[in-house]
Design brief:
The protein is of the alpha/beta class. The protein contains 13 helices and 18 strands. Bound molecules: pyridoxal-5'-phosphate (PLP).
Length: 428
């Protein structure tokens, strides 16, 4: 249990057997310590004993503007005193109205409707259901096959697992997943292969395909694999030619991660549906939105109840979460947070030549430890995690892929600390 690491002794970490909590994406059998956090501030997670850990991965990619943002906290407090939860069928409230209005300002007119839910996985499920239901309602057609990219990740629910890459994540459930047709990852210089593969699939069975779902520009869990914006243009144009809905899962990339507010803004197209969640509240409270076109919405608009969209979560558009989203969108006025993303990206540029195969995009810096392909269960990942943590930095490599993706408020001094550790990493 980390006995070889002296520094950690000052941490008051839990004997996890006594906790009875089953943690996510966590192998309890390894007996690695679980740390109790008592408060957070900016880029720091502060342990019970006052150790300040730099959150180099934005607490699993959700935190954009920094922990404990006073403006968002105040908005949440005020809303909490007014109401906590209200049924969202037949009722609405100010924080939801404000969020919808403010979000619309950042989006193309083509996006006419916003459907709220409560997590990234769910807003992807909603998108898939919306697309497939569109063809059913409008043309009485079952177009239930989905196209997705190899190495992709769309969440841990069954729809998310089905569209995500076949991997150790979903192996036992393989037979329970619905059919997904896959196109290869568009590696730089080989993009034509991906585009051709999609065209071939469409030529063969576009009639059965309801949607293509993609993580724009970065395959996150797949190992921070980047690709070029023109690929989105090409895949979109093919989708329209063959009448397939084009869904972008911006759950990770949304709200500035790639240097623009939404990743698709770097392409020339506007998708039919986008999925937003992680940064929607600045990373404070769980909320999600699936944004779609009037064309899709119109297929559900009828006097006939059987044509409505049959989806809801109990906590859909929770007022307190919506107040956080609304406050976050205020902080996005004039896209101010992008200045910090640029500052971080400029900092990364000064470090690029220190690492083999390093790549950067917006707030993301990534490289493979041994130049190999990504492998999630590579044991080197755990060793690196331990090394960073003992130095008060939270980085959680994806197998042998190390990446940095901090909250945008991170100080250069903290970046120095992270890169000092990366540059002086021992051989694992
Ligand atoms: C994190 C993530 C999800 C899942 O979101 P949850 O809120 O964890 O359910 C889906 N898609 C992408 C691209 C993600 O990064």
């Amino acid at each position: 249990m980390y006995t070889n690491i002296k520094v950690l002794k000052v941490f008051n970490f839990m004997d996890d057997d006594s906790l009875k909590i089953w943690h996510p994406f966590w192998q309890h059998g390894l007996k690695e310590p679980i740390f109790e956090i008592k408060e957070t501030k900016d880029e720091f997670l502060i342990t019970k004993d006052g150790n300040k850990i730099i959150d180099g991965i934005s607490s699993w990619w959700v935190n954009t503007l920094g922990h404990n943002n006073p403006y968002i906290v105040q908005a949440v407090k005020s809303e909490l005193e007014l109401m906590q939860q209200v049924i969202f069928a037949g009722f609405v409230h100010k924080p939801a109205i404000d969020t919808a209005k403010k979000l619309k300002k950042f989006l193309h007119d083509k996006f006419s409707r916003i459907f709220f839910s409560d997590s990234g996985s769910i807003c992807v499920e909603v998108a898939l259901k919306m697309a497939v239901g569109y063809y059913f309602n409008k043309f009485n057609k079952i177009k239930s096959k989905i196209v997705a990219m190899e190495h992709s990740y769309h969440g841990d629910t069954f729809g998310g697992m089905s569209s995500g890459a076949e991997s150790v994540f979903n192996l036992p459930y393989k037979k329970m997943l619905f059919e997904v047709l896959r196109i290869p990852y568009p590696k730089e210089g080989y993009e034509e292969i991906t585009i051709k593969a999609y065209e071939n699939i469409l030529k063969k069975e576009a009639d059965n395909i309801g949607a293509i779902v993609l993580e724009p520009l970065v395959l996150g869990s797949g190992g921070m694999m980047f690709y070029k914006p023109f690929v989105l243009d090409e895949l979109y144009n093919l989708s329209k030619k063959y009448d397939v809905m084009f869904i972008l899962d911006e759950v990770m990339t949304g709200f500035g991660r790639t240097g623009t507010m939404f990743a698709f803004e770097q392409s020339n197209i506007t998708p039919d549906i986008i999925c937003l969640s992680k940064g929607l509240t600045g990373g404070t409270l769980p909320v999600a939105a699936t944004v779609c076109t009037e064309e899709i919405y119109s297929a559900y608009l009828d006097k006939d109840k059987s044509k409505m969209f049959f989806h809801s979560s109990s906590y859909t558009a929770n007022p307190v979460c919506m107040a956080a989203a609304s406050a976050n969108l205020d902080l996005w006025k004039d896209k101010k947070p992008l200045d910090d993303v640029k500052r971080i990206n400029d900092y990364y540029k000064t470090k690029l030549d220190k690492f083999k195969n390093a790549r950067i995009l917006g707030d993301i810096f990534a490289f493979e430890i041994d130049g190999n392909q990504n492998s999630y269960t590579a044991s080197v990942g755990s060793k690196m995690y331990e090394y960073f943590l003992k130095n008060n930095v939270l980085l959680r490599p994806l197998g042998n892929t190390v990446y940095v993706m901090p909250p945008y408020c991170i100080k250069n001094e903290s970046l120095d600390k992270i890169f000092n550790l990366l540059e002086n990493m021992p051989a694992f």
